[in-house]
Specification:
alpha/beta, nine-stranded mixed β-sheet, seven-stranded mixed β-sheet, about 20% helix, about 25% strand, globular, disordered N terminus
């Protein structure tokens, strides 16, 4: 961010790119199971990872956080992005290297929102790989609020700082920041821009921030207090896969996974939901909230549901019962391919 991050606003009607295929590789997530059984699905190709036969002394590692490598192919060529960066650079760099992903082929870096379990590995990753990345590499965030300091705490303890994105590190390594508060087309994917709150979903308890003008708290509520983070900067990364429909990657879904899907449909004009994947932030949600989410998701009739990261066991267990033909299991290192 060169002093102030550039805000990109579409001056023409937004037109989403269309790709022939999309491969999503899980670079960082909580669990690596070396004995993950082989699986098939009629609407996506599933590839799991076990041992690295050329390096039997190392294995993939899991941590609380998420990072996904995205590769699409179209008539205009291929495009590759790294979406989110896990909690620590050590795990991100380890897994990125073991999986053989080539930093020089990345078209850009995308951050879904400003939480440490998604940006924690960013500065270390850029420092380690910048010399091998393209000169004009850009970092795409959902808005200026992405860079606010976050705080975490509970009723029994005072809030502690959870940090913020290291903007200085990006500047030092000549990575330009683009803030996409509106829908923005990239080389294959598009970002949704800020997510409208259209559904029953609410922002479940998580981080705190110093109040700002976009938080919609009263002056009395703001005065001298930290306030709940409403995540105005969160955005989803999406693809339109030719002949299949919309793939929505909602990395953490603080604004609600249903809201994220509806935002993607609204800005793209595509109503066929092919797949939804990422963290759905339902780990702490009450049962009736989980049930409501599943009911809304079923009504959207996705071909594939791929819950990761913060989704929560209750949701996954119920989807296994309610939508068994759509549910796909994941593992750190797994690659899922949609389309041709």
């Amino acid at each position: 961010m060169q002093g102030e991050a550039e805000i990109v606003r579409a001056s023409e009607p937004f037109a989403p790119p269309v790709v022939e295929s999309l491969s999503v590789r899980v670079v960082v997530d909580s669990v690596f199971d070396q004995f993950m059984p082989k699986a098939t699905h009629p609407m996506c190709r599933i590839e799991h990872v076990s041992r690295f036969r050329d390096n039997l002394n190392l294995t993939l590692a899991g941590e609380w956080g998420l990072s996904l490598h995205l590769e699409s192919k179209s008539v205009e060529g291929s495009g590759q992005y790294l979406l989110d960066f896990g909690y620590t650079p050590e795990i991100l760099l380890r897994n990125f290297g073991l999986l053989g992903i080539e930093p020089e082929k990345l078209n850009g870096l995308i951050l879904s929102h400003g939480h440490r379990d998604h940006f924690g590995g960013l500065a270390g990753f850029v420092a380690h790989h910048r010399a091998h990345m393209r000169d004009d590499i850009k970092f795409y965030a959902g808005g200026r609020e992405t860079f606010r300091e976050k705080w975490v705490g509970s009723r029994d303890e005072p809030p502690q700082s959870w940090g913020s994105v290291d903007v200085a590190a990006l500047e030092t390594h000549h990575v330009e920041t683009v803030c996409c508060d509106a829908a923005h087309a990239l080389h294959g994917p598009f970002t949704t821009g800020n997510i409208d709150r259209q559904s029953f979903e609410t922002v479940l308890p998580n981080s705190l921030v110093e109040p700002g003008p976009t938080d919609h708290f009263t002056e009395a509520e703001r005065r001298g207090k930290l306030v709940p983070d409403r995540h105005p900067d969160e955005h989803a990364t999406c693809y339109v896969v030719q002949g299949r429909g919309l793939v929505v990657i909602s990395s953490c879904s603080h604004c609600g996974v249903i809201n994220a899907i509806r935002q993607a449909m609204a800005v793209s004009g595509v109503t066929k939901l092919h797949a939804v994947l990422g963290g759905f932030h339902l780990g702490a949600a009450p049962p009736d909230y989980v049930d409501h989410t599943i009911a809304e998701l079923k009504a959207m009739a996705p071909d594939v549901v791929l819950p990761m990261h913060c989704t929560g066991r209750n949701f996954i267990a119920k989807v296994r019962t309610e939508m068994p033909d759509q549910l796909v299991d994941w593992n750190t290192g797994s690659r899922f391919t949609f389309g041709v």
